[in-house]
Specification:
Layout: E1 9-13, E2 18-22, E3 26-31, E4 39-41, E5 51-56, E6 61-66, E7 73-78, E8 82-90, E9 108-127, H1 130-133, E10 138-142, E11 145-149, E12 154-158, E13 164-165, E14 169-171, E15 174-176, E16 180-188, H2 199-220, H3 228-240, E17 242-243, E18 248-249, E19 272-273, H4 276-287, H5 290-304, E20 317-318, E21 329-330, E22 344-345, H6 357-367, H7 377-393, H8 412-428, H9 438-455, E23 457-458, E24 463-464, H10 479-482, H11 491-503, E25 527-528, H12 529-541, H13 545-556, E26 568-569, E27 576-577, H14 583-600
Antiparallel strand pairs: 1-2, 2-3, 3-4, 3-5, 5-9, 6-7, 7-8, 8-9, 9-14, 9-15, 9-16, 10-11, 11-12, 12-16, 13-14, 17-18, 19-20, 21-22, 23-24, 25-26, 26-27
Helix pairs in contact: 3-4, 3-14, 4-5, 4-6, 4-14, 6-7, 6-8, 7-8, 7-9, 8-9, 12-13, 12-14, 13-14
């Protein structure tokens, strides 16, 4: 099998789950009904894992775009005999507008094909393989299409054309100018029967979904500034990665797209990290609106809550419904994208100790302090207990922001975010009915500052570094001015920014997470787009706006033709790698654009 480049894929979403569609019209990733469900179409991870392709039978040139202010994808194929337009979307519920987008999504993938010029023969091939390719289902013809039986759930394909059914369902209709057909893949829970949809119903859902996305954009997207369309589009991507029933935002809708081709750094990102909370809220504030930010925080605070009396560490990540046990396992029957094994589901980092999460959650609470309304007493006590934990635990080792699988260290970023926890708690003390804790919090905050300034700075490296006593450069040091610990204009921060820009970048000027170090895993990784946007952000705060713009545009150019960003970029080839699309990369884009806009204003 020839694997498609990651950049060839586009995202579809109904705010419950997501699909990836290639430039050539093949749906190669689809989990139904939710982001973390078992994939029924998963060819991106192996040829045996299922796909649904719709494209001209003859060779064609391809262009594509998202319809204006939507996440509805339009792909245009130009052949020698005519032009074909394919419109793809995961349907929203009828008449869902604004904040209700995706509330009652029918769990249905729509594909509308129209010949706009000449005549074109198209080939449709539907080869579902439920449970990540473990099941070869029974395809049963019914009036108006087929039903797919095998495994716990049932799929129904609505198709107006006669189907040739073997191990897959195929048809090859010819469309003439002005003709169109609609296809729908509908999911039903165990024991249910998927609906069969008429052509009129399919196109009604399609047009209504377009209007639903446009109503969401009109209500939410008021940002005016540099890279306006990129910021708005990134806001829509974040909405597309939101699990509407809870407000959780997945880090990415995929699993095991590798950080190194052929390597083992392949992780499941279909979960929500506490670390993303404060970064995400800032981005939603700019690219969406406070309502989405508030919903995300309320869900995160509820999922993370626990009885402070038991002195448990705050968990670093959760499932999209708030699940805590995310135990990791491998799928040995799948070869992985470009033979990058293993394919993993679940994420073994769920029970790691990472002290930075205290700061992230309290920074998020502080960002929303005027929008949260009356906080109940137990939640106030829980948030105050996070500051207490930061003040008492900051001296201990952990796995750090990058979730290393080697031994714990005294990571600078973890200490920094414990400082943030105390700093934001001090500003929230009245709201949390915790003014009696102010003296202890003040003392702990000052103690952490002194430790960072004395042990986090390396004269040898000429920079703040990854861990106390280390000379290893780490891009997370760029967060020091972003969170307000130290101004970007101080000599030490200017030196740190310069060291990262000069010694922690590839030939294109994209930023690595850290210099070579033992992180407990074999192999390497690419440059990180989030870290590159952090560099642009820090440069803007330092008043170096021209440099900030150049770094921002360098990172933004790494997006694909429909402006989606992966986690990383292969430094040798420039190809996108890692799970896709990556929320953190789009969050970094939004926050850096805003920082540059503020600096220019």
């Amino acid at each position: 099998m020839t694997y498609q480049p990651i950049s060839d894929y586009a995202l579809l979403s109904d705010c419950h789950t997501a699909a990836l569609v290639s430039r050539h019209g093949s749906v190669d990733w689809l989990c139904l009904p939710h982001f973390d469900s078992r994939a029924a179409l998963g060819r991106i991870l192996g040829p045996q894992a299922g796909h649904w392709s719709v494209a001209p039978s003859a060779p064609s040139s391809v262009s594509r775009r998202y319809l204006e202010r939507t996440m509805v994808l339009e792909t245009t194929f130009h052949t020698d005999t005519g032009t074909l337009t394919l419109t793809d979307t995961l349907a929203s519920g009828l008449n869902e507008r604004g904040h209700d987008l995706g509330h009652l999504a029918p769990h249905m993938l729509l594909r509308a094909v129209e010949c706009t010029q000449g005549s074109v023969e198209l080939t449709m091939e539907f080869a579902p393989r439920p449970e990540y390719g473990l099941i070869r289902p029974l395809l049963i013809p019914v009036e108006g299409g087929l039903r797919c039986h095998g495994g716990p759930d049932t799929l129904g394909l609505s198709c107006p054309c006669p189907l040739d059914i073997t191990d897959a369902a195929r048809c090859r209709p010819t469309l003439h100018a002005g003709q169109r057909i609609g296809l729908a893949l509908h999911y039903a829970h165990a024991g249910g029967e998927p609906a069969m949809y008429s052509q009129k119903e399919i196109f009604t859902y399609l047009h209504d979904t377009i209007q639903g996305w446009r109503s969401w954009s009109e209500l939410h997207q008021a940002y005016e500034g540099p890279w306006e369309e990129l910021v708005h589009h990134s806001g829509r991507v974040l909405q597309a990665l939101t699990f509407q029933p809870t407000g959780a935002i997945v880090a990415a809708p995929t699993t095991s797209l590798p950080e190194e081709i052929g390597g083992v750094r392949n992780w499941d990102y279909r979960f929500t990290w506490v670390r993303d909370a404060s970064f995400t809220l800032d981005a939603l504030w700019v690219a969406a609106c406070p309502d989405e930010a508030e919903a995300f925080f309320r869900w995160m605070a509820q999922a993370a809550a626990g009885d402070p009396a038991h002195h448990q560490d705050l968990q670093i990540m959760f499932g999209i419904r708030g699940e805590r046990d995310l135990s990791e396992r491998e799928l040995p029957h799948l070869p992985g994208w470009r033979n990058s094994r293993p394919v993993r589901i679940g994420n073994g980092a769920w029970d790691q100790r990472q002290l930075d999460v205290y700061g992230e959650l309290l920074a998020a609470a502080h960002r929303l302090r005027d929008y949260l309304g009356e906080i109940d007493a137990p939640t106030k006590n829980f948030l105050a207990s996070l500051a207490d934990a930061a003040g008492s635990q900051w001296t201990e080792k952990d796995q750090g922001i990058w979730e290393v699988r080697s031994g714990p260290q005294h990571f600078l970023y973890s200490k920094l975010m414990c400082w943030v926890a105390l700093d934001r708690a001090l500003q929230l003390a009245d709201d949390l009915d915790a003014t009696d804790r102010i003296p202890a919090w003040l003392q702990a905050r000052e103690t952490i500052r002194t430790a960072i300034e004395t042990q986090g700075w390396s004269e040898e490296a000429g920079s703040y570094t990854q861990a106390f006593g280390s000379t290893v450069l780490d891009a997370s040091a760029l967060m020091m001015p972003i969170v307000g610990f130290e101004a970007a204009t101080t000599p030490r921060m200017r030196a740190t920014i310069r060291a990262i820009q000069d010694r922690l970048t590839d030939q294109q000027g994209l930023v690595y997470r850290y210099t070579a170090t033992d992180d407990g895993l074999p192999g390497g990784e690419g440059t990180f787009l989030l870290c590159t946007f952090w560099l642009a952000h820090a440069l803007a705060l330092a008043g170096e706006v021209t440099k900030a713009r150049a770094v921002f545009e360098r990172a933004a150019r790494c997006s694909n033709d429909v402006n989606l960003l992966a986690e990383e970029v292969d430094a040798r080839t420039g190809d996108l790698i890692g799970n896709f699309p990556q929320a953190f990369s789009h969050i970094g884009l939004v926050n850096a654009a805003w920082a540059i806009h503020q600096a220019e204003s």
